Fold:
Amino acid sequence: MNLIKQSTVIILLLISTISVFSQAKTEKDNLSLNDGTIGEQFDFVIKKSGDFRGTNGQAYEAVKKSWLYTLKAHSLDSLKTIKKNLNDTKVVVDNQAKEISELKSKLSNTQNDLDKTNTEKDSMSLFGMQMSKGQYNFLLWTIIIVLLALLIFFILRFKNSNAVTKLAKKNLAEIEEEFEEHRRVALEREQKVRRQLQDEINKQKGA
Structure:
């Protein structure tokens, strides 16, 4: 049983190896000087180059000049394409870098505007001065307390002045009443003195 399994594995390995070699051979047979990558074109030139020996018995390899010119042209075209792609990539990278710089600038401006908005939201303006809400509330309540204190002070002063005025009026009324009483008494006394004087004159005349 184990022999059958081993034989099966060996057969599968042989089939895979033959398939790989067949594929490689097909790819080599499909090599062309005008198709494929630069590496494949070099492989074509190397494969098609002929071997010969010189008069001195040294081995040489012969390559057609037309193949070399074609290979050179293809190589230069590939280099041009690579250079163009690099330039295009550089332009794209530069544009992206510029866009990133602009986005960073916009982000910085947006952050500054946001910080300014938060500062204005957390602060109040009074008489053109910018102050925090805490300072604003403290100043506002201080002004209110001072105004209330002044109001209470003036109310007390008014009540005190009113009381003084009432007392002064009362004292004036009492003085006027006393003055009227004194004038009445003085008038009665004067009339009495006149009557006495008249009586004395009458007596003198009668005597």
Observations:
- The mean pLDDT is 77.
- The CA atoms of residues 133 and 207 lie 109 Å apart.
- The helical segments are 2-29, 38-48, 65-121, 133-206.
